[in-house]
Amino acid sequence: MREPRNTLKNPEHALRIFRVRASLAVLVVLLLSSLLVGRLCYLQIVEHEVYSTRSENNRVRVEPLPPTRGLIYDRHGRLLAENRPTYNLTLVRERVDDLDATLTLLVDLLQLPADEVEEFKVRSRQRQRPFQPALLMSDLTESQIARLAVNRHRLPGVEVQAQLLRYYPQAEIMSHALGYVGRINAEELKELDPGNYAGTHFIGKTGIENFYEEQLHGRAGLRKVETNARGRVLRELGHTAPQPGSDLTLTIDIDMQQLAYDLLDGRRGAIVAIAPQTGEILAMASVPGFDINQFVTGIDVASYRGLQEDLDLPLFNRATRGSYPAGSTIKPFMAMSGLIEGVITPEQVIYDPGYYQLPNDDRRYRNWLRWGHGRVDLERALAVSNNTYFYSLAHDLGIDRIHDNLEHFGFGTRVAADVAGQGDGLLPSRDWKQARFEQSWYPGETLSVGIGQGYLQVTPLQLASATAVLANRGHWVRPRLARSIGEEDVPADLPDTPADIEVSNDSYWDRVFSGMEKVLSGREGTARRTGAGLEYRMAGKSGTAQVFSLGQNQKYNASELRERLRDHALFMAFAPVDNPQIAVSVIVENAGGGSTHAASLARAMTDAWILDHNCGLPEQESCLGGNDAESRP
Amino acid sequence: MITDLLRPSRAYPVKQSQSGISRRKTIWQRLHLDPWLLGMLLLLMCSGLVVLYSASGESSHMVIAQAIRFGVALVVMLVLAQFSPQTLMRWALPAYLFGLLMLVAVEVLGDIGMGAQRWLEIPGLIRFQPSELMKLAMPMMVAAWISRHELPPNWRVLLGCAVLIALPVGLIARQPDLGTSLLVAAAAVFVILLAGLSWRFIGVIVALASAALPLLWMNMHNYQRQRVLTFLDPESDPLGAGWNIIQSTTAIGSGGIWGKGWLHGTQSQLEFLPERHTDFIVAVLGEEFGLIGMLAFLMLYLLIVARGLWLAGSAQDTFGRLLGGGIMLTFFIYVFVNIGMVSGILPVVGVPLPLVSYGGTSSVTLMAGFGILMAVHAHRRLLPR
C-alpha cells in the first residue's frame, strides 16, 4: 500500500481549493436563503389576506346547540317519554401514551371480560380524523363512571361524555301509540332542515314521536366558540340559546292504557277508547307490544329479526293499521243508514225464516240462528244480531248508499287528526271493485257488507271513532292524541273535521241506542251475560268476523292452524247512553264469538272509566276537563 | 489505511515553545473561543427562548428546562473547544466506530417510539440517539480520511468515503429515520465537496441519485410516502397528514409583515399548530413576529454561518477546514430544511430549528459542533505560517 502523501506538501493548493469551494457554498447558501425569503414574502405579504381570513375562521367555530326534545305526558301529567342522561366512554388516540396499557386498564376498571381489550382496540381505530374521540362503550353504569373518575389521572385521552337519550318508562304498553325516536338515517337527512338538525342525532320514527316531530324537536341554537385544533373549546364568543321542544300532554290515560293492554295480554288484538264529546283518545293499545327503548340506540339484528318473524307480529300496530272484517259491529251504523235514507222505520217488522233470498235467486243467505228469529223489528234485530234483517236492509239500501253513509261515519277514511300511520280499512264501492278486480258489483256482495263481512274491513280506530260519532248523535269531533302542545291546548275543532250527520228525526238515534242497550241488558241480548249488574246505561254491539284465509307466506303447524282459523271477536260500545263519556272498540284475534270474548273487555274499559274515574255519573257530569292535569310536575 | 488514522499525524509537530510568547493572550484566546460567534449564538439562544415561551403556551417550566440545556450545551462547546484539531482527528475513528456500534445496538434492541427505533436506553442512566452522535462523528471521520490524502480526493479516497457514509446512513434509514439519515449523509457530502470533488464526479453522482429515486420510493415506509404525497398536495388530506402544513402556512401567512405580536398568535396560542414548540416553532415566530421577525432570525443564522465559514477558512490545516466548513453548511441546511418544511416548500421531515426548537439532544450536538469549529480556529497559532 502506498504511503499517503502528506497534504502539507502542498498546503497552498488545498487552501485554494477550499476557498473556491467555500465561496461556491456561500453562493448556494445565499441562493437557498433568498428562496426562503421569497417564500416568506409570498406568504406574509402577497397572500397575507387569504391566510389572515383562514386563521380567523380557524379560531372561531360555530357550533350548533341541539334543543332538548320535549317530554311527553299522559293526560294526568304522568311521564311517558323523557330524556335520560347516559354516559359514553370515548378515547382520543393522540392523547394516549400507551394504548395497550390504557385499554387493559380500562377493561380492568370496568370489570369487563379480558377479551374486550381486542374489541376496544378495534373501536379505538374507528374515527375519521386526528383528535376525534372514538366511542369505546356506551351506557356506562354509575359504578363504572365512579371507578373511571377515581383513576382519571392514569387515563389521559380517556373521557366520559354525557348524552341525553330518549327513555320510555311505559315502553311496552305505549309502544305503538307513542312510537319511538331513532338515529337519523340518510333518507331522513335529505328531508331535514340541516341548520335545525345540525346537532341532533335522533328523530321521531313512528307514532306520536313522528307526528309531532317538529314541536317536540324545538329549534336549534348556535354558539360561536374559540377552539384549538383538538376541538377543545377555549372560550365562548357568542350564544343563541336553543328553543327546547314543546312538552306534549296526551289524551291517553295511562291507567286506561294499562288496563287495555292487560285485558289483551297474552292474546292478539287491539282496544281503542275515545271520549266522544272531545274526541280524546283515552287508550289505544295494540297487543303484543314491544320494548321501544330498544329502538332508540339501535336494535341489534338478531332481536329485530326476532320481532319481525314473530307470528304475533308485535311490530304491527293493530289499533291503527289492522284491517278486520267489522262483523256485526257494523249493524248499528247500517241501521242508522237505513233510517237516514228512509229505507226502514224503527217500527217496521220483517219475518226471519232463518235465511234471506235475493229476488230471482235460489241462494239462501243464512241467519246465524238456523231456524230464524221470527218477527224482528229494528231494536230486536240489533239485540239478537239478526242477519236476515240486515240482509234485507242492505239490499234495499244498495251498495252506493251504504258506502256513502258508512263513509260519513268515518269508515274507509283516516279519522284521527294526529295519529301517524293510520290504515284506511276498506269501504268497498262499485268504483273500488271495478278498479281493483275489473268486475262489476254483484247484489250478493251488498248483503255481505250489510252484516260486516265481504270486502268491508275496518280498523279498531275507525270502529271506535264511528262509535263515538254515533254516541254523539252524529256530531263529529276528530279523534286526537294530543291534549296540549307546550302551553297551548289543542282546539276541539280541528281542520278537516267531517260535517255532522243530519238525521230527519232525532229519535232515530234513541231507537238505535235502545237496540244496542238491549244487546247488554235485554232478555235476548247477545252480550247479556256481560251486561249483568251494570251500574250505568251501556250500549254496545258484538261482532264475529270470519277469518277467510291465512296470510300467504305464513306457515303454521296443525294446532296453531286451528287456533288461527278461529273467528275474530269484536265489540263496540259506549256509555253512559244518555251522557256518553267513553266509546270503545275491542278486537281480539281468533278468540271466537264477540259477544262472549270481546264484550267483557269493553265492559271492563267502560267500568274503569266511568266507575273508577266517576265519569258521567249523575253526581259528576264529565271528568274530561283540566281537573287533574295539575299533578304534572 | 485506517490504522494510520490512529497514529498522531506528522502534519502537526507539537511546538509548545512557539505559543504566543510575545503577545498577551486575550480572555477569548485563553478560552479558545470566538467572541463574535459566541455572541451571535447567545443572541440566537435568548431570542429562541422568547419564542419558546410563547410557543410552549407561556410555560416558564419549559423555558427554564431549555435554558438549562443551553447551559449544558455551552459547557460541551467550551470543553470541545479546548482540544486541538490533532486530538479531534485522533478521535475521529473511535467516535465513528462507537457511533456505528450504537446504531447496530439500536437496530437490535432499540426502543420503539413514534413508529421508529431511534432511542437507545440504559435504564436509569442515559437515553440517547446514536444518530445524533453520528451527525458529528460522520464529518469528522470523512474529513480525517480525506485530509490524509492529497487534495482533491481521487477515486480511491472517494470509494472509502462512500463506504464510510453508507454504513451509518443505511442503519439510520432503517430505524427508520429518513430525515436524519439524509442530514448525516449531507454532513459528509459537504466535507467532500469542500475538499474539491471534481465536477465530473458530481455530475455522475447527481445522475445516479436521480436514477435511484424510484428505488428509494419503493423502499420507503408508508408514512414516509404519505409525507411526500402530502407535501405535493397538502389539501388532499386537510385533516390528516396535510394538517400540519396547512396550519403552519396559515400561521405564517396570517402574521403578515409585522406579526400579531408576542403571545398573540391565534394559530399558535389556540393549539391549531401541532408540535408548535418543537419542529414547527418557526410558525409561531412567523405568526407573532411577522416577516420582520423571520428576516431578523434568518439574518442571524446567515451571519453565524458566515462567521463559521470564515473561521473554518482561516484554519491552517485541511482537516480543520473541511470539518469546520462541513459543520457550518450542515447547520445552514438544518435551518433551510426546517423553515422550508414549515413554510411548505419542503416535505415534512423531523428537523428542529437549530437552537430555537425545544429539545436537548439537538442543541447539545449543535453546540458541540460549534465547539469543534472554535477549536479548529483557536489552535491555528500552533502552526508556523
Automatic annotation (TrEMBL), chain A:
Indicate the enzyme's highest-level EC class: hydrolase
Sorted alphabetically, which InterPro entries does this protein's record hold?
Answer: Beta-lactam/transpept (IPR050515), Beta-lactam/transpept-like (IPR012338), PBP_dimer (IPR005311), PBP_dimer_sf (IPR036138), PCN-bd_Tpept (IPR001460), Penicillin-binding_protein_2 (IPR017790)
GO annotation, cellular component aspect:
plasma membrane
The stretch of residues making up the signal peptide is: none
Q: Which UniProt keywords apply?
A: Carboxypeptidase, Cell inner membrane, Cell membrane, Cell shape, Cell wall biogenesis/degradation, Hydrolase, Membrane, Peptidoglycan synthesis, Protease, Transmembrane, Transmembrane helix
Involved pathway(s): Cell wall biogenesis; peptidoglycan biosynthesis
Report which reactions are catalysed by this protein. Preferential cleavage: (Ac)2-L-Lys-D-Ala-|-D-Ala. Also transpeptidation of peptidyl-alanyl moieties that are N-acyl substituents of D-alanine
For whether the record's keyword set contains Membrane, the answer is yes
Instruction: Show where the Penicillin-binding protein dimerisation domain sits.
Output: 65-237
User: Which GO terms fall under molecular function for this chain's record?
Assistant: penicillin binding; peptidoglycan L,D-transpeptidase activity; serine-type D-Ala-D-Ala carboxypeptidase activity
Any single biological process term in GO:
cell wall organization
- Give the domain of life: Bacteria
Q: Pfam families per the record?
A: PBP_dimer, Transpeptidase
Q: How does the protein's chain sit in the membrane according to the entry?
A: Single-pass membrane protein
In this chain the Penicillin-binding protein transpeptidase domain maps to 269-604
Which compartments is it annotated to reside in? Answer: Cell membrane; Membrane
The active site consists of: S328
Enzyme Commission code(s) on record = 3.4.16.4
Q: Which family does it belong to?
A: Belongs to the transpeptidase family. MrdA subfamily.
Protein's job: Catalyzes cross-linking of the peptidoglycan cell wall.
NCBIfam families (UniProt xref): pbp2_mrdA
Q: Which HAMAP family match?
A: MrdA_transpept
**Protein name (record):** Peptidoglycan D,D-transpeptidase MrdA
Lineage of the species this protein comes from: Bacteria, Pseudomonadati, Pseudomonadota, Gammaproteobacteria, Oceanospirillales
UniProtKB/TrEMBL annotation, chain B:
Q: Which reaction does it catalyse?
A: [GlcNAc-(1->4)-Mur2Ac(oyl-L-Ala-gamma-D-Glu-L-Lys-D-Ala-D-Ala)](n)-di-trans,octa-cis-undecaprenyl diphosphate + beta-D-GlcNAc-(1->4)-Mur2Ac(oyl-L-Ala-gamma-D-Glu-L-Lys-D-Ala-D-Ala)-di-trans,octa-cis-undecaprenyl diphosphate = [GlcNAc-(1->4)-Mur2Ac(oyl-L-Ala-gamma-D-Glu-L-Lys-D-Ala-D-Ala)](n+1)-di-trans,octa-cis-undecaprenyl diphosphate + di-trans,octa-cis-undecaprenyl diphosphate + H(+)
| Top-rank EC class of the record's enzyme | transferase
User: Record's Pfam families?
Assistant: FTSW_RODA_SPOVE (PF01098)
| Membrane topology qualifier | Multi-pass membrane protein
Major site of localization recorded for this protein: membrane
- Annotated GO MF terms: lipid-linked peptidoglycan transporter activity; peptidoglycan glycosyltransferase activity
Which key words are in the record?
Cell inner membrane, Cell membrane, Cell shape, Cell wall biogenesis/degradation, Glycosyltransferase, Membrane, Peptidoglycan synthesis, Transferase, Transmembrane, Transmembrane helix
Protein's cellular compartments: Cell inner membrane; Membrane
**What EC number(s) does its UniProt record assign?**
2.4.99.28
Q: Name one GO cellular component term.
A: cell division site
Membrane spanning stretches: 36-55, 67-85, 91-112, 155-173, 182-213, 289-310, 322-349, 355-376
Give the metabolic or biological pathway: Cell wall biogenesis; peptidoglycan biosynthesis
Recorded superkingdom: Bacteria
Read off the InterPro entries from this record: Cell_cycle_FtsW-rel_CS, FtsW/RodA, RodA/MrdB
- GO terms for biological process, alphabetical: cell division; cell wall organization; peptidoglycan biosynthetic process; regulation of cell shape
Q: Which residues form a coiled coil?
A: none
- Known HAMAP family for this protein? PGT_RodA
User: Cross-referenced PANTHER family, in alphabetical order?
Assistant: CELL CYCLE PROTEIN (PTHR30474), PEPTIDOGLYCAN GLYCOSYLTRANSFERASE MRDB (PTHR30474:SF1)
Record-stated family? Belongs to the SEDS family. MrdB/RodA subfamily.
NCBIfam families the record matches:
rodA_shape
Q: What does this protein do?
A: Peptidoglycan polymerase that is essential for cell wall elongation.
Q: List the protein's name.
A: Peptidoglycan glycosyltransferase MrdB
Gene name tied to this protein:
mrdB
